[in-house]
Structure formats: C-alpha cells, structure tokens
Amino acid sequence: MSGNTSHETHEFPKQVRLRKQAEFDRVFGGKAYAADEVLVMNGCRNDLERSRIGLSVSRKVGNAVVRNHWKRLIREAFRTQQGELPRGLDMVVRPRRGAAPDLHNIRSSLLALANRMIRKLPENCS
Fold first, then answer.
1. What is the sign, positive or negative, of the torsion defined by CA atoms of 94, 100, 101, 103?
2. pLDDT tens for residues 1-35?
3. Judging by DSSP bridges, how do beta strands 52-55 and 32-35 pair with one another?
4. Which of these CATH numbers, 3.30.70.100, 3.50.50.60, 3.30.420.40, 3.30.230.10, describes 17-120?
5. What's the pTM value of the predicted model, to 2 decimals?
6. How does pLDDT run across 68-87, given as a tens digit for each residue?
7. CA–CA separation, 47 and 49 (whole Å)
8. Do residues 107 and 75 make contact, with C-beta atoms less than 8 angstroms apart?
9. Rg (Cα) of the chain, in Å, rounded?
C-alpha cells in the first residue's frame, strides 16, 4: 500500500469558509487581530460549533502563482488542524509581508494565532 494509512481524512467544505463580503466585513469590523512573523489574523467569534476561515492574499505578496501557493498552504494548514483549532472563531488570514510560504511554519502560526485570538475576543462581535 502506498500513502499514510493512519492519516485522518480532513475536509474543507463550504461551511468552514468565509465566502460573503458581509462575513469578511464583520471580522474586520471587530478590530481584533494577532500577528507573528508568518501570518496576520483578524478574528471574531461566531455562534457555530466550528471555526471558519477566509483568506486575504493581496497583490503585494507577489504574482498570481505566489498568491495561489500561499492560499493553498493556508487552506491545507487549516484543513489538517481543524480539530485542534478553537471552536466558534471566524478568522481572516493573510501572509505577513516578507514571509516565506512554508507549510510547517504556517501550521504553527495558524494554531498559535487562533488560540491567542480566541482568548482576547469579547463574547460577541458584530
């Protein structure tokens, strides 16, 4: 057999993505953010049993190939760590200017920032 048989199947359904402009506006309107050397995260609580993610990768990061690479890595980090992330958090994530797109660093950063974010958020934001 090839592949890792002990690997859990993780999904990335529409229910865990921020898709509407109003959802992004609500997160940015909450004015809560956390950052490290890899990622910048804006966050807001939601009333759901899961966290959701939105991506904001601007042209300042690089050309389309570089931006798409960042988006794939951030989505993969979120997808494979959903069980470890705090529940009830809507987050918009973007790469830090000058950071290198590395999956291991993105995974560590995403988890640390989400945990820091959920601790400092008020019970609700709108």
1. negative
2. 344 433 444 677 788 999 999 999 999 998 899 99
3. unpaired
4. 3.30.230.10
5. 0.86
6. 999 999 999 999 999 999 99
7. 7
8. no
9. 14
